[in-house]
């Protein structure tokens, strides 16, 4: 159940949270089959972060995850889990800081280091999910690796 893909480190549960329709039903089935809510993908994204970061985020899925997980995990920052991701973020962060690139990809990879679910929900402007996260103790003053908080 917790086997990760070789490329991104995604699990079946992370795909269910992030992609497609009928997310809540799929999530229920995967939890019954033994999925672990504490698993992170290779880039360091938690299931809550994935649920808050996609374009079609479902507040029901976010609420469900918040009810099932420990409140201390609501402020979990994305920290690279593999050497490959650590190198990617390091190179992108310094290329952006030193203004060596204008690449959107470099900027995206650099700014994802240290983000929380609240960062993503606020970036997308989803007030319902932002309120849910704040009710469960999300901290808006947490900064990403580039020193930007939720309001930046």
Architecture overview:
This protein is mainly alpha-helical. 49% of the residues lie in helices and 0% in strands. The longest helix has 15 residues, at 83-97.
Structural category is: mainly alpha
On the 0-100 scale, what is the average pLDDT?
88
- The DSSP helix count reads 8
Secondary-structure element string: HHHHHHHH
Percentage of residues in helical conformation: 40-55%
Low-confidence blocks of residues:
none
Q: Count the strands?
A: 0
Rg, rounded, reads 15 Å
> Alpha-carbon distance between the termini?
37 Å
Please summarize the sheet with the most strands.
Answer: none
Beta-strand proportion: under 5%
Key phrases:
single chain; 152 residues; mainly alpha; 0% strand
In a few lines, what is going on in this structure?
By secondary structure, the chain is mostly helical. It contains 8 helices and no strands.
Helices and strands, with pairings:
Elements: H1 12-18, H2 23-32, H3 47-53, H4 59-68, H5 83-97, H6 104-112, H7 117-124, H8 127-135
Helix pairs in contact: 1-2, 1-3, 3-4, 3-7, 4-8, 5-6, 7-8
């Amino acid at each position: 159940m917790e086997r990760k893909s070789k490329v991104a480190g995604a699990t079946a549960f992370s795909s269910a949270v992030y992609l497609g329709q009928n997310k809540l039903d799929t999530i229920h089935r995967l939890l019954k089959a033994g999925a672990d809510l504490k698993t992170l993908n290779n880039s360091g994204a938690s299931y809550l972060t994935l649920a808050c970061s996609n374009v079609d985020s479902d507040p029901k899925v976010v609420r469900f995850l918040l009810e099932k997980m420990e409140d201390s995990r609501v402020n979990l920052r994305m920290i690279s889990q593999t050497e490959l991701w650590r190198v990617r973020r390091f190179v992108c962060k310094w290329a952006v800081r030193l203004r060596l690139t204008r690449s959107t990809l470099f900027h995206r990879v650099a700014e994802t280091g240290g983000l929380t679910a609240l960062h993503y929900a606020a970036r997308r402007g989803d007030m319902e999910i932002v309120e849910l996260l704040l009710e469960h103790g999300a901290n808006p003053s947490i900064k990403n690796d580039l020193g930007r908080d939720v309001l930046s």
